[in-house]
């Protein structure tokens, strides 16, 4: 870990600031990731979020948080949200700056500052690491995780963007699946309109077509993605966004029923409690 931060400091700080390296110390927290103290600066190590089933931008994770690429509109949503709505969304825990470095073997390391520990991670559900191959393509390396191709595709893209620049801002949200070792995840897109007032004409037509050709038009909701852990087979099954657009109203209800059944009595009770 230290060698990656050395490269980071050499790139971003003048020589006199690098004297802070003499006060390096490392400590471990319950998350299994390693915050690193350099002088009075504390960095967090990030990895890929293994349970992403939808979205366009790759999600990362650190301690008990999910790190999501920041955009001004979503940031304003979380910062200006009224207290009466906060119970329905993950806790917003601020924003961090993320930097990616690569070693001589092509292994990538992602670090962020400032370090945040308000939601410590409770379960280990595997890890997602990144490697830069000889062609310059980011490869996703997983450990005892489901074969979630969509998460790998999105996260490799966001790591590429980090490599193209030095810094990138991310928002931090409470990782609501951190208490589960084998979480079942369902991503739904609510509403019959899915484009903003400032969308281009071409994007507006694309979004209208997606709604018209899916359950967004008939039910006002469509499935973006789903992962289910089958205890009988000890494996995951997935529904990706393409299948989510194709299914009709009856199939949507069938998938939803299967999700609730697969979660089991214990998980269903926890969902109702939340």
UniProtKB/TrEMBL annotation:
Pfam families in UniProt: IPK
CC terms in the record's Gene Ontology section: cytoplasm; nucleus
InterPro entries: IPK, IPK_sf
Superkingdom in the source lineage: Eukaryota
GO BP of this protein: inositol phosphate biosynthetic process; phosphatidylinositol phosphate biosynthetic process
Gene Ontology terms for molecular function: inositol hexakisphosphate kinase activity
EC identifiers of the protein: 2.7.-.-
Keywords for this protein: Kinase, Membrane, Transferase, Transmembrane, Transmembrane helix
Gene3D superfamilies the record matches: Inositol polyphosphate kinase (3.30.470.160)
Family stated for the protein in its record: Belongs to the inositol phosphokinase (IPK) family.
Protein name: Kinase
Taxon lineage: Eukaryota, Metazoa, Ecdysozoa, Nematoda, Chromadorea
